[in-house]
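User: Run a structure prediction on this.
Assistant: Running it now.
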Amino acid sequence: MRFISWNIDSLNAALTGTSPRSEMTRDVLKTIAGEDPDVIAIQETKLPEAGMSKKQAAALSEFFPGYDNVYVSSHGPARKGYAGTMALYKKEFAAEIRADFPDIGAPVPMDLEGRMITLEFPEFFFNLVYTPNAGDGLKRLSERQVWDQKYADYLSLLDQKKPVISCGDYNVAHEEIDLAHPENNHQSAGFTDEERAGFTHLLGKGFTDTYRYLHGDVKGAYSWWAQRIRTSKINNSGWRIDYFLVSDRIRDKVVRSEMLDSGARQDHTPILLELK
């Protein structure tokens, strides 16, 4: 099976926008469709609480005509038009999938921000997540630490029932080799000791970082480049903050785990996982 995960930074803009960036985003959607994935995980959809319009739904089906989808948006009292996640899956799987939108007991309003979807297949769970950012000035770091603990506990409970495949924007570069300039970022959101320890704790619950499993300590492989720095992608001054994790007991089934080319578009690039 083949899976793709991508933080799209506004599905609405991708489907109906007219800016040059929207055009680049649609090119990435074409790249994703060309990989013929079985399941696609989208983060940061930024859809309204009421959901997609008919125009948006029609545009999405043009890119992925053979897929059904489920999604969850941020809803009150959380900020509107914020975060949000979506899973698309081939229609052939529809009869065997059960979708869940779990409340993990995270600090308010994180569980209301549409940050997670879990699909239950007969033989495994597929979880997609958009982990909260610690924020400017690390103002949300303490809440983020609680989220990390709650999320690790949740994924561990799933793993006790059947193997787990999990993916998304985890908003953390785990090791120094996961970003271009670790020396300058130890107090930056996404590379604090606390966030890195949270990810280490998650892996210690019985999960494998599939990219590192296949590629070892290779450097210079990133999934995100800051939009505000115009040359960040040209200079490959990036971070690896998007991951595919699997239960340790199925890691030997991993045959591909890599980033897809998103061209000149900065921000996140899609990541791909293929299992036997």
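Residues 68 and 94 are 7 Å apart (CA to CA).
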